Fold this protein.
Amino acid sequence: MPGLTIGDTIPDLELDTTHGQIRIHDYVGNGYAIVFSHPADFTPVCTTEMAAMASYAGEFEKRGVKLLGISCDDVSSHKEWIKDIEAYKLGSRVTFPIAADPNKEVIKQLNMVDPDEKDKDGQQLPSRTLHLVGPDKKVKLSFLFPASTGRNMDEVLRVVDSIQMAAKHRVATPANWKPGDPVVISPSVSNEEARKLFPQGYEVKDLPSKKEYLRFTKV
Ligand code: BEZ
């Protein structure tokens, strides 16, 4: 079983969090949510990642994206850990909930288990998983990073921009795209449709196959 992946509906779990009980689907609501896990509280990379998320929270909010962290320790541990996170990055506030999962049930249901990481009792720990969930409660993107590698929040923001643009305009974003760069017209759009959908015009890259499939435009 591959576990939760792109296109799946995220399970509507009830979570015990630093902001009280939260049901995942209610929390996502009509917007987007990023549900992201950490191996454990009071660990070095996790502390830097949480502080980074806290300082990017305003950017996610502008895009209608809520944040929901998960770490297996309990809520009282999370509340103590937040003091360290905020002290590490002075001025940052952890404004989003962090869910507890002491029985390691949530991480299994959300495909967040790292098979190579165990706690001191030999219990499984989460990887650095991140699911972007859409208004339809389906997973739009997943990252699975090992404990050794902290995530790049600029990249998380970039993929949110890409996915929200693709949801709106029938375009896709090419390699290394950043907001403001040209986008490509989706292969499902015929040239006739493209002329109507993109009156600003588009440029077809001339390639040896002459198949005219690489069409750049600006939106
Ligand atoms: C960390 O956050 O630094 C970490 C957590 C678990 C295993 C390895 C590193």
